[in-house]
Amino acid sequence: MLTTLAFAFSLSAQSGELSPVPEEIAEAGRGTAGSPHIPVDSWIYPAATRLFEMGYLPTLYLGMRPYTRVSLAHALSLSSTVLDRGNAPDEALDIYARLCRELAPELGKQPSPHIVAESVYGRVRGVHGAVLNDSFHLGQTFINDYGRPYQAGLNGIAGYSAYGTAGRFNLYLRGEYQHAPAATGYSDALANTLKTLDQLPLNGTYFNIPQGAIATRNQSRLLEANLSAHVGGHQISFGKSDSWLGPAEGASMIYSNNSEPMYAFRIDRIEPLYAPGLSRVTGLFRYEFFVGSLKGHNVPNDPWLHAEKISFKPTTDLEIGFARSVIWGGKGHVPITVATFLRSFFSTTAATPAVKFSRDDPGARFSSVDVSYRIPFNDYLFTVYADSFAHDDVFPISAPKRAAIRPGLYIARLPGLSRVNLRVEGVSTDPPARQSTGGGFLLFESVQKQGYTNRSFLIGDWIGRENKGGQAWLTWHVRPDQQVQFEYRRQKAAKDFLAGGTTQQDFGVNLRLRPARDLEVQGAIQGELWRAPLLGNGTHGSVSATVGVTWYPDRILRSTR
Question: What domains, with CATH codes, occur in the chain?
Answer without folding.
Answer: 4-181+216-557 (2.40.160.130)
